[in-house]
Design a protein that fits this description.
60% helix
């Protein structure tokens, strides 16, 4: 069975818009996934910390720098 791509993978490959992160958070919350939200989204610890402590715009900027 093929592994589902994470939010981060899809976003970095320009397959989805950043705003879809909210849909992924909802999907995780409604699922039986045993992984953490960070793992489900494909974020590392630093990205998660920025997202939580600074906000979505800061996370988007951080991810956007990975594809420049």
């Amino acid at each position: 069975m093929e592994r589902k791509k994470t939010f981060k993978e899809l976003y970095l490959h320009h397959e989805i818009e950043f705003e879809e992160i909210d849909d992924y958070v909802y999907e995780w919350g409604m699922s039986d996934e045993s992984c953490t939200l960070r793992e489900y989204l494909g974020l590392n610890e630093e990205e998660e910390d920025v997202w939580i402590s600074v906000g979505e715009d800061a996370l988007r900027e951080m991810l956007d720098k990975l594809v420049e």
